[in-house]
Amino acid sequence: MQLTGAEVVVRCLQEEGVEHLFGYPGGAVLFLYDELYKQDKVKHVLVRHEQAALHAADAYARSTNKVGVALVTSGPGVTNAITGIATAFMDSIPMVVLTGQVPTHAIGEDAFQECDTVGITRPCVKHNFLVKDIKDLAVTIKKAFYIAATGRPGPVVVDIPKDITAQKVEFDYPSSIAMRSYNPVVKGHTGQIKKAVKLLLDAERPMIYTGGGVILGDAAPELTQLVKLLGYPCTNTLMGLGGFPATDPHFLGMLGMHGNYEANMAMQNCDVLLAVGARFDDRVIGNPKHFCEQPRQIIHIDIDPASIAKRVKVDVPVVGNVREVLRELIRQIEAARSSTKGEALKAWWAQIEEWRSRDCLKYDRTSDVIKPQFVIETLYRITKGDAFVTSDVGQHQMWAAQFYKFNKPRRWINSGGLGTMGVGLPYAMGVQMAHPKATVACVTGEASIQMCIQELSTCKQYRLPIKVLTLNNRYMGMVRQWQEFFHGNRYAESYMNALPDFVKLAEAYGHIGIRVEKPSDVEPAIKEAFSRKKDLVFLDFITDQKENVFPMVPGGKGLSEMILV
Amino acid sequence: MRHIISILLENEAGALSRVAGLFSARGYNIESLTVAPTEDETLSRMTIVTSGSDEVIEQINKQLNKLVDVVKVVDLSEGEHIERELMLVKVRAVGKDREEMKRMADIFRGRIIDVTDVDYTIELTGPGSKLNAFLKAIDPTAILETVRTGASGIGRGDRVLKV
């Protein structure tokens, strides 16, 4: 049967099982919107700014294991979407982004709302396509979903000129696809895994360090099994939280710039390090020279060979899907005749417990102003550790990561790589769309929330009962913290002057707003908010203005050179 | 160290910019880059001359392999290989210099492919060092214009880069 290009796109989305599409209409995508209007399988979610469409689709993907899908128009629709695309790219999130383009005959003529989408997005996508012939449309969309979801995932842009959406073609959606230039590795090299097993079993001071790859690769059960089988300590990166249960005694907390003392010390002092789906980035290991001064053997499992030996030398690289590799690793360990080094391990754990007793996350619990850490602890208690928590970027993000104990993967949704302020609320929208009955909390700050505040309107339209917890310290807190530590207390432009009344603002959008000013009101307010199952509640916590995030590894310093409280 | 990297990539619009963009985005050097379709017109063959430490070259290889349009990557410098570059030089050729210029072209096995009464255009092929040597050997004030293709490379013997 002959279908128009627009019909083809919608049929492709249906074939891929897409249930939600986040977008914003415009001239170049009118035929597409017309087709979306005529069906009800793919539900379109109308945002208030294209950036939010991308973030919402991104969080939809992060909280499920599906590909997130967004649709924006040409020109400004695309440029507004760039931040969202780059955010997803840095954290390897599978997304397909459909963008409208001016008609093929007008491309290159500086037409109204024209931009070089393929050129602009090229550095921040896994791949992108411009569809120049309607005959290529369906197969291109198939490729886009395939590339986005396989190997190291990432966003793929498909740019579709308006005339293509109006032309007709015989529809044929391929059931599978093969590309000679794209063949991601799945299974790890058995010989390499054998070497890894030997190193691991011979370790006297072992450490297991895991990142977002464990979450994206759905390998949390395998990781948990491995850690318990070996009895070794485990730490997660910011992106890896939930990959291993945070309440398990083998867990040393998050590592890195604001990581736990015990995690960073164990990382620095171990003799064998197993890195899984992590990339030794600057916020995780600090200065790589300092990190490498300490001799240790490193085993690195990652699906992306380019992530291996990029910042530190690796002794045993294993390229493959982390779940497949971990399964093989567990199989070989169980079959191995030798066991772990009991005595040495006992001493290592004693050392770790000593580090742990430093209680690096302590804070003043007697304060008569609200401590931000206390808000997160209370949130954790009241939601029984079972909420989806999204965050923006800054101090509140670090406190949420430190104080909310994630026992399950895909529950902690934040922008780790790009560090995009403004993601929190649209992330919560994407999560709530994917999990309509789940408890979704957005932990944010008064600066970050204002970067996508317009989405309160989207939340009203779709009745999303998100709970927004704003840690309002009247500062861009992380900027202020750096200015206090490294710029002589000169708080250049980091004070948030002329803040809106967030309670009234929430009410203006048709939601409920509650301001909380006393520590004793924190728990009742959070309870009240979460008891309202159908409402979005905006909690504005007036917190300690000068609270800092500890521990802290200053930029350029070594992982064990922490500033402690 | 200098490396010469050969790439087979899909002959599609934008493939070249993906490679060039990768080099600029990650701060890798490009000494020269040359590309043209192969006998299979769905594929292009690219030769990039670059330099960097072993770690950087390893990353370049890995990052190139990651590009979806790239089918195969080979670092020719890892084995025996041949490099050739084509240069066209327009030189002033008047009076007694005219005969001298012809002689120099012959010595370097160049060919004069265009002649006027005041200049020659010489075609010269070889490794880059030979082309440099020619430019050094002739009177620099006689050079009117040069154009070079950048190096193309191929493995020696049975080293074949093919899909």
Description:
The complex is a heterodimer of chains A (565) and B (163). Chain A is of the alpha/beta class and 565 residues long. Chain A has three domains: 2-170, 3-Layer(aba) Sandwich (Rossmann fold); 190-356, Rossmann fold (3-Layer(aba) Sandwich); 372-542, Rossmann fold (3-Layer(aba) Sandwich), CATH 3.40.50.970. Chain A is 38% helix and 16% strand. In chain A, the strands form four sheets. A six-stranded parallel β-sheet of chain A has the order 3-2-4-5-7-6, sandwiched between helices. In chain A, β15, α17 (395-403) and β16 (412-413) form a beta-alpha-beta unit. In chain A, α16 (372-382) runs parallel beside α22 (519-531). The longest helix of chain A is centred in the first third of the chain and has 15 residues, at 76-90. The model of chain A has no long low-confidence stretch (mean pLDDT 97). With 163 residues, chain B is an alpha+beta fold. Chain B has helices spanning 15-25, 54-66, 96-107, 128-137, and strands at 2-10, 32-37, 43-51, 70-75, 81-92, 111-115, 119-126, 143-148, 152-155. In chain B, strands 5, 6, 7, 8 and 9 form a five-stranded antiparallel β-sheet that branches. Chain B has a four-stranded antiparallel β-sheet with strand order 2-3-1-4, with helices on one face. The relative contact order of chain B is 0.21. The mean pLDDT of chain B is 96. The A-B interface holds A 118-119, 122-123, 126-127, 130, 147, 179-182, 304-306, 309-310 and B 9-10, 13-14, 17-18, 21, 25, 55, 58-59, 62-63, 65-66, 68-71, 163.
Quote the CATH topology of the largest domain in chain A: Rossmann fold
Overall pLDDT metric of chain A: 97
Query: What is the highest CATH level, the class of the largest domain in chain A?
Result: Alpha Beta
* End-to-end gap of chain B: 28 Å
Helicity range of the residues of chain A? 25-40%
The assigned CATH architecture of the largest domain in chain A is: 3-Layer(aba) Sandwich
Radius of gyration of chain B: 19 Å
Care to count the β-strands of chain A? 20
- The separation of the N and C termini of chain A measures 69 Å
**Would you report the number of β strands of chain B?**
9
Major β-sheet profile of chain A = 6 strands, parallel
Based on CA inertia axes, which overall geometry of chain A fits?
globular
